[in-house]
Design brief:
- By secondary structure, the protein is of the alpha+beta class.
- It has helices at about 50-60, 110-115, 120, 125-150, 185-195, 235-255, 255-260, 265-270, 280-290, 300-330, 335-370, 380-385, 440-450, 460-465, 480-485; strands at about 15-25, 30-35, 40-50, 70-75, 85-95, 150-155, 160, 170-175, 180, 200-205, 220-230, 280, 395-400, 410, 415-425, 430-435, 470-480.
- The strands form three sheets. Strands 6, 10, 11, 12, 13, 14, 15, 16 and 17 form a nine-stranded mixed beta sheet that branches. A five-stranded mixed β-barrel has the order 1-2-3-5-4. A three-stranded antiparallel beta sheet has the order 7-9-8, with no helix packed on it.
- Helix 10 runs antiparallel to helix 11.
- The two termini are about 35 Å apart.
- It binds one RNA strand of 77 nucleotides through strand 1, strand 2, helix 2, helix 11 and strand 16.
Amino acid sequence: MHQYIKEIGQHEGKQATLKGWVANIRESKTNIFVVLRDGTGFMQCVIGLDDVGEAQFEAAKRLSLESSLALTGNIIKDERQMGGYELQATSLEVYGYAKDYPIKVNENEHGVRHLADRRHLWLRSKRQWAIMRVRNEIKMGIHEFFQDRGFMQMDAPIFTGNACEGTTTLFATDFFGDEAFLSQSGQLYGEAMAMAQGLIYTFGPTFRAEKSDTPRHLAEFWMIEPEMAFYDNEMNMDLIEAFIKHVINRVLEKCKVELEALDRDTEALAKVNQEFPRVAYTDSVKILRGEMEVNGKNAIAVQEADLAAAKQGIEDNLKDIAERETAIKAGMKKGARKFNEAKIAALRKEIAIMEEQVRNIPKWIESARNFKDGEDFGGSDETVLTRVFDSPVMVYNWPTKIKAFYMKEVEGDPDHVKGVDLLAPEGYGEIVGGSERETDIEILLRKIKEHELPMEEFEWYLDLRRFGSVPHAGFGLGLERIVRWCCDLDHLRETIPFPRRYGRLLP
RNA sequence: GCCUCCAUAGCUCAGCUGGUUAGAGCGCCGGACUGUUAAUCCGUAGGUCCUAGGUUCAAGUCCUAGUGGGGGCGCCA
């Protein structure tokens, strides 16, 4: 029987055995300091020559990054250590030595390609460990939220015969001689189940064959889609807001160590604990164009300020780098020189990011200024819009022509439908998309034709309207997108263990 | 699909307007030293400067094409 780092506090002053891998190691003549990771956490273990004897000490000297071993020793409190405890080894057993581990302790010292090619190993890194733990906690939070409210989890099929929003972006497969598609949404099946169970949610994988090589797209991702009988869009929005608050607060409460490891600004996350602004699409267009202010903030002006700040930042960093370089040339001690060299490297990285901003922000401003009422928001438009808010925003009543066929028209305004998108703050964009569903079979028939969808494949769906049609609503949440926001990641590729995206199938 | 930036050591990068023998940090290996926290110090090894053409007395550096990658946009959650 061995113990786990997460619960090691219970063994303070006693002997314990830990089994894990070397996450970091420092050697000296008489002591070897191993930072052990066992999946539940990270902890420093000290192997002293006098404590373990010469033979075991020699074995320990051959340890390197990611070697696996069991360590037995005394658990002592040490405030200086992460987690607050340390193991002082009395014996050890090596399972497997690792040589030339290709990923450094600080994963930021690698390019994305190098890491992505080694995803199976990269998952061991501390940041990735933290992300996967947050992902797990979000999933638990999702189930908790819905189960506590009487929702039943249902499994929608993955092979589907019909496309709910057009076939251009589906992966086609052979299903015993018939063409089948990998599901792009479980919603239509969710609606059927809601008519049987009242309150349901699906939680499954979803596939999109879009050649979208962006930080916010995957070809395979996980979606949560609740569907509620007897809900209108107001109730839908209330549920979305309560849901997001629940999930984020659970992560804030249960993932303190992980968020710390990710260097996540938890105060910004905690801003979900205010009422989410609800903005009609037509108003959001005005805000985006800079024609309407929010809390004294103008969307265009915010972008212009960002642009000016980036330009100034580049100048400042260049000046800083030049000063440090002259100082280094003039001569300084090795320690000071290394410090300055590291600083220069960091400043250069900042410059590269700011240069991208200088290149991109003018395009974003252009796009926002010229945005036409009736169009869908692009990625940059979402960023520009959400920057004037510090909490998630709900945009509702969207133009009919850019939304799916099943969304219910606003009474007396057929040009708009009762859809709602939740946009995350800090530039993370759309997290949730939902709507009240159309209940009138005549309107549905018309829309399926207008969208040029194959009517015969929707016959079963139309039955839901033929036999006791009721008002109902639902939404879809992209799991990876909320993970990205929670962890403050610049790309979706880190939010899922083995990302499947355009150009990436291995490992 | 479009726009844009980039490709130099195992990794991350520097190399100004072309100019002799291409550099640093980290990692590896060897050594010293230390209750160390991305430890520190000394030393060794390690490069066909992505590929193919071109300009030039001279190309890592300039030009063209190709290949590969980053970022942005489009399409979308």
